[in-house]
């Protein structure tokens, strides 16, 4: 996603901005070899079609449960590649190039318009001008992989569309429905992807995950020692990645029956864990309310 202004700026300023794009292309290419090899390796041994067979259901519970891990690796490395290549095409064409002084943001474009005009004049004939392509920067792989919470991970995933959802859906939900903003946003995101039931089953699992994370953070992280906070962050990261594994099966299986059939084969463990964490966090907050210590929030 990018604004019409970004498209218009590209058309009107492509001849005046003489920018060396090589350094930006190299920076994005560094991650591609590992991503491509991972995709080819795991897709050779694992296939989503196998999940829909009777033979798969005869496998052990552990096998069925762990099968979603390589499936999510295949799923996200495929999308990583597509998004990096889309950024490649945009960078090559010069789409989304703005001076750093204009403080461009993903999806939004420049935010300091006074500095924008000044910087254009200063950098017009400078091949090594201080520009970036943050406007069309769509994926932060390190954020997706290493962020400790689902909320942080989602913000690093398909970032320009996240900007669109946040600004044009989430923030425009009427005040009367404020408590349902996340659910409404996720429903719109599912519809944006398509009409397959698997999208809705996956996206509508996000709100309870975020609720469980928020409650457990208040119960176990806030007010804890730095050592305990680090331990909690690692546990939360593990929960985030397994949650993504669980939800990606809806994206891959797509059909209502196929998705429910798989989740049933692992006893809806993802939903069960969400409920357990939420209830446990609530109990801890009721029985042992904590006040955040200074410097630990």
UniProtKB/TrEMBL annotation:
GO cellular component, one term: membrane
UniProt-listed GO biological process terms: lipid modification; phosphatidylinositol biosynthetic process
Membrane topology: Multi-pass membrane protein
Pathway assigned in UniProt: Phospholipid metabolism; Lipid metabolism; phospholipid metabolism
Coiled-coil stretches noted in the UniProt entry, renumbered to this chain: none
Domain of life of the source: Eukaryota
Alphabetized InterPro entries for the sequence: LPLAT_7/PORCN-like (IPR049941), MBOAT_fam (IPR004299)
Positions of transmembrane segments: 29-46, 61-79, 266-287
GO molecular function: lysophospholipid acyltransferase activity
Keyword terms, alphabetized: Acyltransferase, Membrane, Transferase, Transmembrane, Transmembrane helix
Subcellular location: Membrane
Pfam family, one: MBOAT
Family to which this protein belongs: Belongs to the membrane-bound acyltransferase family.
Stated name of the protein: Lysophospholipid acyltransferase 7
Gene: ORF19287
């Amino acid at each position: 996603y990018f604004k019409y202004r970004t498209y218009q700026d590209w058309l009107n300023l492509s001849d005046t901005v003489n920018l060396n794009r090589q350094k930006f292309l190299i920076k994005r290419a560094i991650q591609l070899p590992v991503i491509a090899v991972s995709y080819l390796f795991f897709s050779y041994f694992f296939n989503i079609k196998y999940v829909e067979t009777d033979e798969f259901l005869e496998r052990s519970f552990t096998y069925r449960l762990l099968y979603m891990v390589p499936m999510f690796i295949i799923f996200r490395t495929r999308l990583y590649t597509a998004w990096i290549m889309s950024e490649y095409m945009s960078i090559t064409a010069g789409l989304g190039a703005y001076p750093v002084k204009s403080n461009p943001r993903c999806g939004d474009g420049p935010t300091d318009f006074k500095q924008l005009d000044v910087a254009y004049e200063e950098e017009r004939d400078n091949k090594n001008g201080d520009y970036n392509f943050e406007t069309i920067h769509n994926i932060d792989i390190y954020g997706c992989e290493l962020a400790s919470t689902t909320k942080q991970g989602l913000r690093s995933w398909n970032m320009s569309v996240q900007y669109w959802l946040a600004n044009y859906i989430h923030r425009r939900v009427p005040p009367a429905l404020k408590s349902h903003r996340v659910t409404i946003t996720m429903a719109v995101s599912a519809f944006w992807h398509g009409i397959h039931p698997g999208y809705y089953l996956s996206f509508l699992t996000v709100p309870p995950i975020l609720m469980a994370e928020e409650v457990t953070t208040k119960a176990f992280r806030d007010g804890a020692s730095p050592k305990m906070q680090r331990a909690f962050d690692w546990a939360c990261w593990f929960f985030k990645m397994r949650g993504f594994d669980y939800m990606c099966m809806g994206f891959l299986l797509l059909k209502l029956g196929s998705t429910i059939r798989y989740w049933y084969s692992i006893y809806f463990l993802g939903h069960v864990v969400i409920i357990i964490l939420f209830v446990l966090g609530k109990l801890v907050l009721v029985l042992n309310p904590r006040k955040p210590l200074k410097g630990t929030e």
